[in-house]
Specification:
142 residues, 13 strands, 8% helix, Ribosomal Protein L14, 39% strand
Length: 142
């Protein structure tokens, strides 16, 4: 079933269901040059779930993260991030299965503007379609 909801920070609001591969307290590699190296998911806004069930996120979702490793200015700060890669395989509408080598995210503002000026590595097509500002900075969209 497709997901409809509030457009958190712009982009499209309608997207097909993607297998959620990242849960609460998952560690992501920061794919931009904002100063963070590793971030941890501490929340998934706009996910309505059963009580005591941990929220999960997939490629293209906006999450709340805290920086675990990075520059002293960014460490232990709380930011919003968009997930651009996930290790768990997910199926696209054309029948192909996609799986990336790592879990990665890009730090953004609440409106969806990227904090860094470049994105390292590939970005999933689903994240690029939903977040046009992320797509503009990415060098490779798969």
């Amino acid at each position: 079933m497709a997901k409809r909801g509030k457009g958190l920070g712009g982009g499209i609001t309608y997207r097909p269901r993607i297998s959620a591969g990242l849960h609460h307290e998952s560690i992501l590699t920061c794919a931009d040059n904002s100063g963070a190296k590793f971030v941890m998911i501490i929340g998934v806004p706009s996910v309505k779930s059963r009580i005591r069930r941990l929220a999960s996120a997939a490629v293209g979702d906006k999450v709340i993260v805290t920086v675990k490793k990075g520059t002293p200015e960014t460490r232990h700060q709380i930011f919003h991030a968009v997930i651009v890669r996930q290790r768990k395989p997910f199926r696209r509408a054309d029948g192909t299965w996609i799986r990336f080598e790592d879990n990665a995210g890009v730090i953004v503002t609440e409106e969806g503007e990227c904090k860094g000026t470049e994105i390292r590595g590939p970005v999933a097509k689903e994240a690029a379609e939903r977040w046009p500002k992320v797509a503009g900075l990415s060098s490779m969209i798969i």
